[in-house]
Amino acid sequence: MSSVKWHSLPFADVLQRLNSSLTGLTTEQAKKRLIEYGHNAIIQKRRRSLLYILLGQFSDFMIIVLLVAAVISGFIGEPQDTIAILVIVLLNAVIGTVQEFKAERAVAALRKMAAPEAYVLRDGHQVTLGATELVPGDVVILEAGNIVPADLRLLEEEELLVDESTLTGESHAIEKQTEPLADTALAIGDRVNLVFKSSMITRGRGKGVVVASGMETEIGQIAGLLQDEASVKTPLQTRLSRFGRYLALAVLAICVVVFAAGLLQGQPILLMFLTSVSLGVAAIPEALPAVVTISLALGARNLIRHNVLVRNLPAVETLGSVTYICTDKTGTLTQNLMTVELFFAAGEQRGSLPEPEASIPWAELGQAMALNNDIMEKDGKPAGEPTELALFEAAHMAGFDKSILELTTPRIAVIAFDSERKQMTTLHQTADLVTAYIKGAPEQVLQQCIQGLNNDGVTAFEVAAVLAEAAQLANKGYRVLAFAKREFSCLPESVDAETVERELTFLGLVALIDPPRPEVPQAVNDCLTAGIIPVMITGDHPGTAMAIAQRLGIIDDDRKVLSGDQLAKIPDEEFSRLVDSIRVYARVTPEQKLRIVKALQDKGEFVAMTGDGVNDAPALKRASIGVAMGLKGTDVAREASDMVLLDDDFSSIVRAIRSGRRTFDNIRKFIKYTLSSNAGEILTLFLAPFFGLPIPLLPIHILWINLVTDGLPGLALTTEPAEPDIMNRAPCPPKESIFSHGMWQHILWVGLFIGGISIATMAWAISRDVVYWQTMVFTVLTVSQLFHSLAVRSESTSFLRIGLFSNLPMLGSFLLTLLLQMVVIYTPALNTIFHTQPLPMVDLAVCLFISSLILFAVEIEKWLMHRGVIYSSEFKLQVLISESYH
């Protein structure tokens, strides 16, 4: 039934197709249809149990590797490592479970939006029923303040205005009618003879027949999209999963080689087994999940200070990879508040309304704006339809106080607005006259005018010239209203449109718009500078969307604008070629929003989607990251999103992106640091036998180094401040390896460097025939990694420029870890456990000096990289990517 174009049929045909009548269904008919169509409710798929969601968190390859490492650690007698790994894995599983459980609440929020009751005609009588009992063919009575209980084709309407903003994105209430519409392919917002489930009646009354209920309604179809649409893995999840697979294979190969090399050298089988297994455990960065979680948690905490609430922790990092921001217009880029911006009277256009003491045309226009409305005071504030409220407030700010004016010119009659006349008239009594003020669509009002009003009084005027002015304003995205008046010596006998609304005197035009938020243009510019493309996707009219987009700097011409009607006619293959050139989509449906997001993702783009309405929810869920509005957003949008802007400020997204990039940078720094350190340990153990040297370290030494160097210094890297150029570079392509931009080269040469200085220290100590040679190797390996942690705090900026005190947690972890190493060397009780000997001060100083060489070596690498001597091809590629975005 949902395929029927109800809006294009006369209501008599609609009733016939539904086998209903103006008096509604009988009770028997309703019972049968309830069995056939089911309840008028959003059906929710069976929810997964918490246990099922929890077990699903352990399917990631990296998690499996860590669990194997935990078992091995317990086997070789290191229960503390086993406990640490299990706690980390369990913590991540709990966080993942909570986030997935929250995501499933999106459809539950949608269910809450349903109207609890409805006024229905059954057996010819009006009765009150639960909205879930409605079936197709039921006739429903609508009044101001009602939530629409199902999708209805209107049969009757009186001044009916409906707020459909959560469904269509249109910022002002929609005027409804009952006549059929010829175009069968109209967007939801243009089907003005239909009202939709969960919309709000803001004015008037009406009667409609149910044409869709439950999951067949527009909002039900959105719920279906929400249930069927799968979330997309974040770039970090994808990269870490790939990294885990490669690392496991590499570790396995290293363990086999070290074990075989030891046996060939004549080492005991048990010792070599424990050594190779210990090395395997050390090579796996079990602190990585903890570092990732802490980095994301710190980023989330920081974003709260910028009014951004993170509902899904990986979203913090995901923002750093965003290449496109698809944003709704109403309430996101604009204020969702109709505002008068321009006035036209006496042949002159102004940006503000003059005070009452101004010339006669402007004074008359101001008085008409103040009096011709149905604004009432509610809780001490003016309340009413948004357009009328905007006109009232503009007049009030200029000094035209309605309450004072009504004392001298009280309203004595009104001809209410209707969709055929497209105008409203109020009549007011003055001392000796009755004045009628008329407002409405320019093409209607102007045709009824016979003269105009200027500074010299009443004069003839050209209708065509004023219509051209109105058209010009409309083309700029304004909603234009015309004002006129007519004076009578007394109240006409017949107060109707035919008598009053003719032979009018034109007063002026008023242009309204939902204006952009003042902070958004700068935020859009910041996005472009950061290599991120903003795209507007709205249910509003193309002209309005284009005007707002041009103001914000999103587009510079209309070639980058596509309407929903045009999009519906474009095949997927052709749209795939066009999608990266379109910057504004107008009059689109929820399904089309989803199609746009998917098309961009298929092109390899990483898409953030912002929105506040029910119509945004499926795209919010599908997007790489969904960002909902917190103040004016619906519960449905918030539940489907990863992040919520608590202040509805688009510029907060830019701050969030900066935080996301910082988080990803710091995770990269940790991986760079820990894998370089692990490579140093592996190469030390692997290469020493080839130089005829004994096994450099015992299993307990390897596990200690792994514990202290991957622990505190690694966690301290999560607090590193952002790089200076963080928002002046292109986003990391989602498919780009985490080892790009020279990281794998850095890991390789630093591993060789640390391995080289460790073996050199070992050879020098053995040549001197000192018994503490193993303690010296142990110390160099540990302390060199600490100096390396200081060096990798920035990928391009010198350590001297960063300063020692710009990251106090890092300084503290460096000193504390160094102190722990000294305790292990110089405490007699620990000497027995760790098989260490106290070092003479001279040898300790030599160890510290040799270890510090890594800091100077990395500084030289930065200097060479900055001058394009090394990694230049990757650097040039990054520059080209950045320039292409601009």
TrEMBL record:
Spell out the molecular function terms from Gene Ontology. ATP binding; ATP hydrolysis activity; metal ion binding; P-type sodium:potassium-exchanging transporter activity
Q: Give the domain of life.
A: Bacteria
One GO biological process term is: intracellular sodium ion homeostasis
Membrane topology field: Multi-pass membrane protein
Query: Per the record's keyword annotation, is Transmembrane included, yes or no?
Result: yes
Q: Where is the Cation-transporting P-type ATPase N-terminal domain?
A: 5-78
Print the keywords alphabetically. ATP-binding, Cell membrane, Membrane, Metal-binding, Nucleotide-binding, Translocase, Transmembrane, Transmembrane helix
Does Translocase show up as a keyword for this record?
yes
Provide the family line: Belongs to the cation transport ATPase (P-type) (TC 3.A.3) family. Type IIA subfamily.
Its protein name is Cation-translocating P-type ATPase
Taxonomic source organism: Shewanella psychromarinicola
